[in-house]
Automatic annotation (TrEMBL):
PANTHER family: BLR3095 PROTEIN, CYSTEINE DESULFURASE. This is Aminotransferase class V-fold PLP-dependent enzyme. The keyword Acetylation does not apply. Keywords: Aminotransferase, Pyridoxal phosphate, Transferase. It comes from Sphingomonas colocasiae. Residues 62-373 form the Aminotransferase class V domain. Pfam families: Aminotran_5. GO terms for molecular function: transaminase activity.
């Protein structure tokens, strides 16, 4: 396979790349031609048919199937949601805090995850935060110390949305082992990695995995997923529910609640139909190119970016070790918002968080994008030298 030629073809499906060096896939992936066509097909179907519920329910299952493939899971273990938050909320609603009252939450969670667990305080939860060490990693020992016999759930992020640091698979497995040994469940947020590397939920040993389709999965806002380990589903009864969470969505029974035996019990109401058109098309782009190929491409690009930033004496906040980072590199800036604005004026799109600018790399980026970014950063006067005191 001529990988470069294939990636060139892939890039050509994203017209934005013609003018913009786009590094904001960790916020919202670029719109591919296939995804645009799918969204237009939704509008055409609406005009032509009015409503096409049969096709829409089949579409939801097509998205479920593709997500299962990406996660190394069964279709019946996947709930299709409208956001990652919806999935986490459904899981939280199924946790009985009277039996075990602690939610152990890493300090590298996206706010939504921490906030949802804090929202359970009125249901008796106590949130225990797991802090990072000086080297910005969260050592296994910190999780080991926080998880005890009172822990109901442990919330982890695969790749931290702030600086791109990654919990390696071995550490996730070990945290899950410790949690299970002590009777706790583990929920993994893989939103900042899914689509850029293979994720095998079973091999990771976690109980839930959550994310959404609008970033590296190239879909649109309004789509998310929740994977639930099948052996667990029947033991969990989310108190968030709805007709699409019932065993029979056509039951129309107002006198009973009969949750689906599958992970669909973690869903609620009408599926996010327009977003599912985009989600399926985005997932097809990812699956057609192949996650292994994307992982190689993204690793090559982030490696190149780190090496070029080092040559330009620009400090980064992301681990240099290929095994300890996801698709995003964070670069501390004197004024991160001003830097993002300055880059946009040069058709280079990044985002800012926590005093860093974030550059997320996808398979549609190329080496020329990396050069544009590094040169613009070097010119900006906003970055810190590698020996300067940062943060
Ligand atoms: C790691 C991570 N988790 C969760 C979310 C929030 O997802 P949603 O808005 O679909 O609930 C984001 C969004 O940026 C994220 O990066």
């Amino acid at each position: 396979m001529t990988a470069e030629a294939d990636f060139g073809q892939f890039r050509a499906q994203f017209p934005t790349t013609e003018t913009i060096a786009y590094f904001n896939s960790g916020s919202y992936g670029l719109l591919g031609n296939g995804v645009r066509a799918a969204m237009e097909a939704y509008l055409a179907d609406r005009i032509a048919k009015g409503a096409d519920w049969g096709a829409w329910v089949a579409l939801e299952d097509a998205v479920r199937q593709r997500m299962a493939t990406l996660l190394g899971a069964h279709m019946h273990e996947v709930a299709v949601t409208a956001s990652a938050s919806a999935g986490i909320n459904a899981v939280a609603s199924s946790v009985d805090f009277s039996a075990r009252h602690k939610a152990v939450v890493s300090n590298y969670e996206f706010p939504t995850s921490a906030q949802i667990w804090h929202a359970q305080e009125k249901r008796g939860a106590e949130v225990v935060h797991v802090a990072e060490a000086e080297d910005r990693t969260i050592p296994l020992a910190h999780f080991d110390a926080a998880i005890d016999q009172d822990t109901a759930i442990v919330a982890l992020s695969h790749v931290c949305y702030r600086h791109g640091g990654k919990l390696p698979a071995g550490q996730i497995r070990e945290i899950a082992r410790i949690a299970h040994e002590r009777g706790a469940l583990v929920i993994l947020d893989c939103y900042q990695s899914i689509g850029t590397e293979p994720i095998d939920v079973r091999a990771l040993g976690v109980d839930f995995c959550v994310g959404g389709m609008l970033k590296y999965l190239l879909g649109s806002a309004g789509s998310g997923f929740l994977w639930v380990r099948d052996a667990l589903t029947s033991a969990l009864a989310p108190s968030t529910s709805g007709w699409f969470a019932q065993a029979d969505t056509n039951a129309m029974d107002i006198f009973a609640h009969d949750p689906s035996p599958s992970a669909r019990r973690f869903q609620g109401g009408t599926p996010p139909v327009p977003s599912l058109y985009a989600a399926k098309a985005g997932l097809d782009l990812i699956l057609d190119l192949g996650v292994d190929a994307i992982e190689g491409r993204v690793r090559m690009l982030t490696r190149l970016a780190l090496d070029r930033l080092a040559q330009a004496d620009i400090a980064v906040a992301t681990p240099d070790d290929d095994a300890l980072r996801g698709p995003m590199i964070a670069i501390p800036a004197r004024d991160d918002d001003a830097l993002v604005t300055g880059l946009i004026a040069q058709n280079i799109v990044t985002s800012s968080r926590d005093g860093n600018i974030r550059a997320g790399f996808h398979a549609y980026n190329d080496k020329a994008d990396v050069e544009r970014l590094v040169e613009a950063l070097a010119r900006s006067g906003q970055c810190f030298g590698r020996r300067e005191l940062v943060g």
